[in-house]
Specification:
Chain A: It holds the Pfam family STAS_2. Chain A: This is STAS domain-containing protein. Chain A: InterPro entries: MlaB-like_STAS, STAS_dom, STAS_dom_sf. Chain A: It comes from Pseudomonas petrae. Chain B: InterPro entries: Bact_Sigma-Reg, CheY-like_superfamily, HATPase_C_sf, HATPase_dom, PPM-type-like_dom_sf, PPM-type_phosphatase-like_dom, Sig_transdc_resp-reg_receiver. The complex is a heterodimer. By secondary structure, chain A is an alpha/beta fold. In chain A, strands 1, 2, 3, 4, 5 and 6 form a six-stranded mixed β-sheet that branches. In chain A, helix 1 runs parallel beside helix 2. The longest helix of chain A has 13 residues. The relative contact order of chain A is 0.18. By secondary structure, chain B is α+β, with helices and mostly antiparallel strands. Chain B folds into three domains: 127 residues, Rossmann fold (3-Layer(aba) Sandwich), CATH 3.40.50.2300; 226 residues, PPM-type phosphatase domain (Phosphatase 2c, domain 1), CATH 3.60.40.10; 158 residues, Histidine kinase-like ATPase, C-terminal domain (Heat Shock Protein 90), CATH 3.30.565.10. In chain B, helix 2 packs parallel to helix 3 and helix 9 packs across helix 10. The relative contact order of chain B is 0.07. Classes of the chains: A alpha/beta, B alpha+beta.
Chain lengths: 104, 569
């Protein structure tokens, strides 16, 4: 499990990449990936390409990111969701909260 | 107390050779330790018992009791604590040295002693001793905390059970499986009767474990019981639960939940699922089961404005059952990391022959799959039952009745925007409860009011045709149209008039419900034979059966019903 982040050249978009299990043990790393460095990004992307499992506390962390990014006005894409991850997001109907993209 | 590695130790030296013993004593004392001496094994064991030295230097060959036996006895006396024993030996055969360790020795040092090596060995052994002491101390600490925790959970659970079990989970048509400590896994199961004799049931699963997962349960249960008892329907109850959880829970906490309203009189089940795995409506007549899919965001995530309280309604008759489960079932992983999954669950549902064993069969399938049983899954199955067999408990009132109002009338008119969002029934029922004579029949009153109100709304204001509901497909369509038309509604009203008049020792209530719709041919509809097997048409029959008089006027746009009561004893 590891969390890395990458900011676009103009600083507007922040991509967070999660590898392995996305669960409570990722909490600290995930938060520090988006919490203020220089300034807020205006768009966020969470790349789940190498995420093979996500539990309900991961859903909670996504909600924290959404809150941080402006709540109902947040612009967050969840990209590269594999089928298992997609299923978990679907059960909670997270497509109503996030822009879920199956492949890049 | 934990002694530090640099502490002065008490070292027991056991050697039958006086000069060796004195030499060793001098060396060990010089290294800063206190020394006890013994001249044979028995004496060493005795000294150990009395003085509890922290480390033992033990000669192997001694009279009375040899070092091997003494080492065994000292190790037994020491129990969990590590008392390092270093054998002093002139033995050189591997077999003899191995015997020293087999007897419980931790190390050995060969005669003649090298002072530097001896000091290093004493220090190394002492580090191990301190490590063991630390581990034991922490173990005891954890054990103590664990006991506290269990006790706290026991108390919290007892308090919670007083609340959770005030409902009707013990009804004979409900079967469920829940770990005794489900509350601390965040699982919640509640059931209660509404005033009209509908059963409301909630299965919830809070994110996380332990205390954080348990704290949300209390307010959720409070809203569930409070609003169900007052006669609110699922949408209002859901909105309130969502708003309350949203307000009190941290952003990353929420509650996946499914809520059911089982209407045994009208043979309907209303379902809302937000975030729980598919539940199933199992049909008694052998049709394939209907999945009850999560089509909503869990409770406590969305703001009141964007929360979706739309429910699905299905026919629910004799032999039908609803089965709900927490995610622990489908998320169970087998030994190779594979998930149990929805398909395996469906196989169990399909192959089930004896409904009474369904939950056990799912458990067995899980246990076979994982190679061991799980105690953190929740499942509930609720079956159709004839309303008379269940008998919701009657409400007990505590006021005297002296101030009961007996001669009054009131009129209400609900217009478009109100009809879209507001359910006036709980409020109206509350008002009528002030009349003591009506309390005995509050359940009937509530059913009749609900029927008249939904008829006025659905057939009158919205112009829906109940003939749609003749099969399962049309049934879904009906409720879909209901939501769409309500959403688009621009003009409409429902008027409700109450008139209460005293009559001898008792009194009489007349209710008039008028709507803005096109009306209907009441004579023709009422002349139809009562629907027994059909999916619709129970409403008017219920109204006729439960009220003392009823009639339709104004081309079916106005319904009048009467309830009378005798003087109270």
């Amino acid at each position: 499990m590891s969390v890395t982040s990458d900011r676009s050249a103009d600083g507007q978009e922040l991509t967070i990449i999660i590898k392995g299990r996305f669960d409570f043990s990722t909490h600290q790393e995930f938060r520090s990936a988006y919490e203020p460095k220089e300034k807020h990004a205006s768009r966020y992307k969470v790349d789940l390409k190498d995420t093979h499992y996500l539990d309900s506390s991961a859903l909670g962390m996504l909600l924290l990111l959404r809150d941080h990014a402006g709540g109902d006005r947040a612009d967050i894409q969840l990209v590269n969701c594999n089928n298992d991850v997609k299923k978990i997001l679907d059960i909670s109907n997270f497509s109503k909260l996030f822009n879920i993209v199956k492949t890049a | 107390m934990i002694s530090s590695a640099s502490d002065r130790l008490t070292v027991l030296i056991a050697d039958d050779n006086v000069s060796d013993r004195m030499l060793l004593s001098a060396i060990v004392s010089r290294q800063g330790h206190d020394v006890l001496t013994a001249s044979d094994g028995a004496e060493a064991v005795g000294l150990f018992e009395r003085r509890r030295p922290q480390l033992v230097l033990m000669d192997a060959m001694m009279p009375v009791m040899d070092g091997f036996e003494a080492a065994r006895q000292i190790k037994t006396l020491a129990g969990d604590a590590l008392v390092p024993i270093i054998f002093l030996t002139s033995l050189t055969e591997g077999e003899d040295l191995a015997r020293c360790l087999d007897a419980g020795g931790d190390d050995f040092i060969a005669k003649p002693y090298n002072q530097v090596v001896l000091a290093a060995k004493i220090n190394a052994m002492n580090r191990l001793r301190v490590l063991q002491e630390t581990v034991l101390h922490q173990r005891d600490l954890i054990t103590r905390h664990h006991k506290y925790l269990l006790n706290e959970q026991r108390v919290a659970k007892a308090v919670f059970d007083q609340i959770a079990h005030s409902g009707c989970l013990r009804s004979r048509n409900i079967r469920y499986l829940q770990s005794p400590y489900a509350l601390f896994n965040g699982d919640l199961l509640l059931a209660a009767w509404s005033p009209s004799g509908n059963m409301h049931l909630l299965l919830g699963d809070f994110t996380g474990h332990g205390l954080p997962a348990a704290v949300g349960a209390m307010p959720l249960a409070e809203v569930f019981y409070g609003m169900t008892a007052k006669g609110y329907g699922l949408p209002e109850t859901l909105r309130e639960m969502n708003a309350k959880l949203k307000r009190i829970l941290p952003v990353d906490m929420f509650c996946c939940a499914a809520l059911l309203c089982l209407n045994f009189k009208q043979q309907l089940v209303e379902v809302w699922n937000g975030g729980l795995p598919d539940g199933y409506l199992l049909h008694g007549d052998g049709r394939p089961h209907t999945p009850l899919i999560s089509s909503n965001v869990p409770l406590g995530v969305l703001s009141a404005g964007s929360f979706d309280d739309n429910t699905q309604v299905y026919p629910f008759g004799p032999g039908d059952r609803v089965f709900l489960l927490s995610d622990g079932v489908v998320d169970s992983t087998g030994q190779d990391g594979e998930l149990f999954g929805a398909r395996r669950l469906q196989n169990v549902l399909v192959s089930n022959r004896n409904p009474a064993l369904l939950i056990e069969e799912v458990q067995w399938a899980l246990a076979r799959f994982r190679g061991q049983a799980r105690d953190d899954v929740s499942m509930v199955e609720v079956a159709f039952a004839e309303p008379d067999l269940l008998g919701p408990p009657s409400v007990i009132y505590t006021d005297s009745g002296d101030s009961s109002p007996l001669d009054w009338s009131a009129s209400f008119e609900y217009r478009t925007e109100t009809l879209k969002r507001f359910n006036p029934l709980p409020y109206l029922l509350q008002l009528l409860q002030e009349v003591h004579g009506l309390r005995m029949q509050s359940s009937e009153l509530y059913i009749v009011l609900s029927e008249l109100y939904s008829n006025a709304l659905e057939h009158g204001v919205l112009g829906l045709d109940s003939a749609l509901k003749r099969d399962a497909e049309g049934f879904g369509l009906y409720y879909q149209q209901r939501a769409e038309r309500l959403d688009r509604l621009e003009d409409g009203f429902i008027r409700i008039d109450f008139q209460i008049v005293p009559d001898g020792e008792g009194g009489r209530l007349t209710v008039r419900v008028q709507d803005s719709g096109a009306g209907f041919d009441s004579d023709r509809v009422l002349a139809l034979p009562p629907a027994v097997t059909q999916l619709s048409g129970r409403g008017l029959a219920l109204v006729r059966q439960l009220s003392d008089r009823c009639q339709w006027t104004d081309d079916g746009r106005t319904a009048s019903v009467e309830f009378a009561w005798e003087g109270l004893a």
